[in-house]
Amino acid sequence: MARPSRCRRICAEPEIDGFSPCGIKSAGQVLLTVDEFEAIRLIDYEKKTHEQCGKQMDISRTTVTEIYERAREKIADCIVNGKELKISGGNYALCNGSAVKYCGKRCGCRFDFSGKNPNENGKEKEIMKIAVTYENGNVFQHFGHTEQFKIYEIKDKKVMDSKVVETNGSGHGALAGLLSKLDVDVLICGGIGAGAQNALSAAGIKLFGGVSGSADEAVNAFLDGTLVFNPNIHCNHHGHDHAEGHSCGENKHGCGGNCH
Fold first, then answer.
1. Burial class (CB in 10 A: 0-12, 13-18, 19+), 82
2. Cα distance from N-terminal residue to C-terminal residue, the chain
3. Do the Cβ atoms of 247 and 191 come closer than 8 Å?
4. Stronger pLDDT, 101 or 203, i.e. the higher one
5. Residues sharing a CB contact under 8 Å with residue 24, sequence separation 6 or more, in sequence order
6. What is the Cα–Cα distance from 196 to 7, expressed in whole angstroms?
7. Per-residue model confidence as pLDDT tens digits over 4-47
8. Dihedral sign of CA atoms 201, 213, 253, 51 in order
9. Concatenated DSSP letters for 57-70?
């Protein structure tokens, strides 16, 4: 049996997801995966070596070379033959801050895992608050149906205090407002719908979905920069009870919930 490929760590998904030839009808479409795009960005744009690129993407130098050469061939095909370039998919995971020593935070990684969290005035907040959807010590797997949040207060990357807060039957739309009133900075959960994700984003709350297991261990992993999460988590089961064995945060990609 072939060994599954390792997830490639990327700093952020590309803001532009495609290019088309100008003035002529496209001769076809070429798919450039996001990890291939990242290799091009790091090597050709940021002028990193293949070894440096490998460390930042958490893969071997030889794998970087394979990805890079494949990406260059695809780009050349588009330029020479007038094909449309589409950037999408691939076997990758968004950086959770663990690559900061390689990228120096120039890349726009999603969150600062130093334990320092700037407030709206750009100054450091002394205390960071992390909320976890909570049930019997574990991460509850449906954000919209959670009856409790466990709120952790963090200072200097250490848990200083924690408490369980009842949601009192609040639905999907009201939960983001509840977390905002509690001054929460980060939410760790299992499955979550698109509407709730948008509400959290509007409230300035960072989301780490697709997480399962012990709530305490999830928070510790977050603080260590090793939390396994799914940046594309979604749940289409709103208004329905989950069937036995179903988990909104379930990972079917064999890569800790991070693969796409």
1. middle
2. 21
3. yes
4. 203
5. 82
6. 27
7. 566 788 877 788 888 999 888 888 899 999 999 999 999 998 88
8. positive
9. HTS-HHHHHHHHHH
Q: Tell me which H or E stretch contains 177.
A: helix 172-181
Q: Which two tokens stand for residue 151?
A: 């709120």
State whether the Cα torsion 17-105-155-183 is positive or negative: negative
Q: How far is CA 91 from CA 28, 96, 211, 257, in A?
A: 23, 16, 19, 11
Q: Which amino acid is at 165?
A: V
Do residues 216 and 163 lie in contact, with contact meaning Cβ atoms separated by under 8 Å?
Answer: no
* Amino acid (one-letter) located at 27: A
Question: What are φ and ψ of residue 161, in 5° steps?
Answer: -160, 160
53-76: buried (b, 16+ CB within 10 Å) or exposed (e) per residue?
A: bbbbbbbeeebbeebbeebeebbe
Sign, CA torsion 47/51/57/62:
positive
pTM of this structure? 0.50
- Which among 142, 149, 148 has a CA at the least distance from the CA of 205? 149
Contact 39, 10 (CB under 8 A): no
Return d(Cα 15, Cα 130) in angstroms, integer.
28
Tens of pLDDT, residue by residue over 63-79, are 999 999 999 999 999 99
